[in-house]
Amino acid sequence: IAPVLAIIGRPNVGKSTLVNRILGRREAVVEDVPGVTRDRVTYQAEWLGKTFTLVDTGGWEHDAKGIHARVAEQAEMAADLADVILFVVDSRVGATATDEAVVKMLRRKKKPVLLVANKVDDANQEADASFLWGLGFGQPWPVSALHGRGAADLLDAVVAKL
Ligand code: GDP
Ligand code: MG
Description:
This protein is α/β, with parallel strands linked by helices. The chain has helices at 15-23, 67-81, 97-108, 126-130, 151-161; strands at 4-8, 40-47, 50-57, 84-90, 113-118, 141-142.
């Protein structure tokens, strides 16, 4: 059975864009409006000859439960079935209260987490990513899921943990 890599994070941080980057094709639905991805979508992926199952998350509705609870709930389900977790944060926005809720949940899991500072489209934006050291998951990986910047380095680190 292939190991599972789960991609979690708030709506609109670029999870589905990162999925497409990893797959090398446009399969996950990317939307400017948050909340398009269905609850959980899985794909078969490969990097450096290693095959793994990729889980994209999202698709919660803004109901009475509130966005924090929804994101944390989805993230927890994905985290529970994952071998390795990619926690994606929007480096232009920084860590929000919703991100902090996910951080709390992730700390309770004894699973490897790689922190992705997404939307670092050029070198000037790398400083934004360094603030995310404070989340306690070690080195933030500066990535542009949209343009591919940093994605290969991230995937090298991912498959080393799978
Ligand atoms: P999700 O809700 O987390 O799955 O986010 P999506 O993948 O649907 O992306 C949300 C928006 O962010 C879309 O408009 C994407 O084009 C944009 N986006 C995703 N990754 C990047 C990135 O690396 N750089 C920039 N500038 N925009 C991005
Ligand atoms: Mg999505």
